[in-house]
Design goal:
There is one protein chain. With about 100 residues, the protein is α+β, with helices and mostly antiparallel strands. It has one domain: Alpha-Beta Plaits (2-Layer Sandwich), CATH 3.30.70.330. It is built from three helices and six strands. The chain is globular. The termini are far apart.
Length: about 100
Amino acid sequence: MREAHEIIISPVVTEKTADQMEQGVYTFVVAKDANKIEIGDAVERIWDVKVLDVRTMRYAGKARRSPMARLNRNYAKGRRAAFKKAVVQLAEGEHIELYEVG
């Protein structure tokens, strides 16, 4: 069994996810080969909360464009990394302290 910190890479904190945190829904970047059961167990072990639901989605890496794309015919200057994201719903009344507001 893998360590929980190998599965949960980082939280995703955006305007949308900050609004979802008020309803007990948290978003994380996770390991590409992690499944829903592993993700739920990892969140429960790290933060000692009860997980109700885990939804996952994969994002493909995209080709980067040159800053001078119109002048340069060679558009591809590398790739952005592919990643997997998980949306975790906690039980009623549970919350995770990801960052301090103030």
